[in-house]
Amino acid sequence: MDETPFNNTNPEDESVVSNDFSTTLGALILGLVFLLGVPGNLFIVWSILARIRRRSVTTLLILNLACADGFLMALTIFFVVYLAKQTWVFGNAMCKGLFYLCNANMYASIFLITLMSVHRLVAVVFPRKARVLTSKKVVRRVILGMWVLVLLISIPSLVFRDVDIDKNEYNKTRLVCAPKHTLPRHVRFQYALETVSGFILPYTVIITSYVLILRRLRQTKFRRAVRSEKLILAIVVMFGLFWLPYHVINMIQVAAEWYEDGSDRKETLDYIANSSRAVTSALAFISSCANPVLYTFAGKSYIRQNGFAFMARLFEGTSLDQTETKKSRAGKEGTSTFESSNSAAMAALQNGK
Q1: Is residue 340, in this structure, part of any structural domain at all?
Q2: What is the pTM for the complete model shown?
Q3: What is the pLDDT of residues 118-154, one digit of tens each?
Q4: Which residues pair with 166 in a beta bridge?
Q5: 338 is a domain residue
Q6: Is 149 exposed, middle or buried (0-12, 13-18, 19+ CB in 10 A)?
Q7: Which domain of life does the UniProt lineage start with (predicted)?
Q8: CATH of the domain at 133
Q9: Residues near 274 by beta carbon (within 8 Å), at least 6 away in sequence
Q10: Which residue among 111, 127, 148, 243 is least packed, with the fewest CB closer than 10 Å?
């Protein structure tokens, strides 16, 4: 994730930390995100690890999502200091490492949400194959492979990032943690990769999954509102709303690189991207602290009865939805079989008479 594009020699690298309004707003948002996101996601992790013995696939994915979001929230304190001081004080290694970890957790979040949607698709559309495809062993391997993938795909943010010396509008020298793109194609590659692999492709899979799920539910008589369906759909919508502005700015940055230096369109696009980058990045961070709030609203009916264990009851409820559905179907099939066998027996007795 790219928080701050800088430098004086390239319009793409004009510093946003010199914009007082953007800097102040970004610091306030990130400070609030840190205060809400870190304890909120830690509470989710504690609820799942300490309160739930038998963890469903959905619960395992939510656990990984909370770990990714909580770790990302813990990093925001460095960016609050950066925006407040308007200079980078943590060194070059931290400059590269922090932005690399932010990118990795951004990818992890959207990939985990995508896996939730695909899991619901398999459970609803392919129920006979669900046990094999979504077994704990398979899911753990998929999650491990996902973490390896996000660590690899985030490498560009490690390569194209360095500490640089910059001067603000008052000619005061400061250090900035800036992207280092020596060629225009480097800019296009990094930002296009982020948006395509971290937003467009995952959301295409998510939307396709839910279209197929809704079509399947309409074809059957089973239309009971499944709790996990609503919860996962809310997570998907929340993530999209907060990350869309960030990826729009990415595409504006990419579009600017197709125009010649000094052209009016390039200058306009660069100005829009540079003046909006800090705020859209801060908004993107909000998605990682929004999930605990979302879970709290979803599980409010359990709070009075279960106290601090309400989150565990919520997640147990989402895992029971599918189980109860299968049991109820099996019960209905068993009842109909029993009734048909009884009627056949009665007919035989009558014929015997």
Answers
A1: no
A2: 0.78
A3: 988 888 888 887 777 777 788 889 999 999 999 999 9
A4: 174
A5: no
A6: middle
A7: Eukaryota
A8: 1.20.1070.10
A9: 5, 11, 12, 14, 15, 16
A10: 148
